[in-house]
Amino acid sequence: MDSIETGKLFSDTGDWRNKACVNCKGDPEHLYAEGYKRAIEILINEAIEKEDQDFLIYPIVFNSRHYLEILLKMVLLGLSRLTDSPFDREKILNHKLSLLWKKVKILADKQWPDGEHIAYVSKIENVISEFEQMDKNSTAFRYAMDKMGNPSLPENLYRINIKVFGEKIKELGIVFKGMLIQIELEEELH
Q1: pTM for the full model?
Q2: Distance (Å, whole) CA 118 – CA 175
Q3: Rounded CA gap, 132 and 97, in Å?
Q4: pLDDT at position 5, please?
C-alpha cells in the first residue's frame, strides 16, 4: 500500500476492487448525477443508523442541491436539443437553481404545450424555492461562514428532518429522471 509520503493521491495502484473508473465512455452527466444520488442515500442511511445527523446534514444537503443542479442542467440540455433552441453552455455555469428551472420551464412549455409536465411544476418550484431561501448560492452547507464572515445558514433554521428531506429529494429526482426519459424517447422518434 502506498503511504501518504510516497503514494499519489489519485493513484491507480493496488487491488482492482478499490479503483473507481472515471472518464469512462458513456453519459458522464448520468454518472455524476447517479454518484451524488447514491452518496445522498448512503449518508442519510448512515445518519439515521448511527444518529450522526448533526454532522452529516451538511454533506447531505450540499450533495442533494448539487444532484438537483446536475439534473436540471441535463433536462435543460435535452430540451434545448428537442426544441432546437440555441444553447449557450456559459449561461448554465452557475449554481442558481431558480434560474436553471426558469429556463427549463420555458423550454418544457414549448416542447409540451399540452401541459404533460404541469402536474410536477408546483412540486419542483416548492423545492427550488426552499433551497433558494436556505442556500441561495450553494455555499450555506459547504462553509460555516460566508465571504463576509457572517454565518452562512439562515438564523431561523435550527432543525432539518433528514428523512423527510431525503424523501423530497428522491421524489424530485424521479420527476427529473422522468423528464429525461421522455426527452430521450422523443429524440429517438425524430
Answers
A1: 0.90
A2: 11
A3: 7
A4: 62
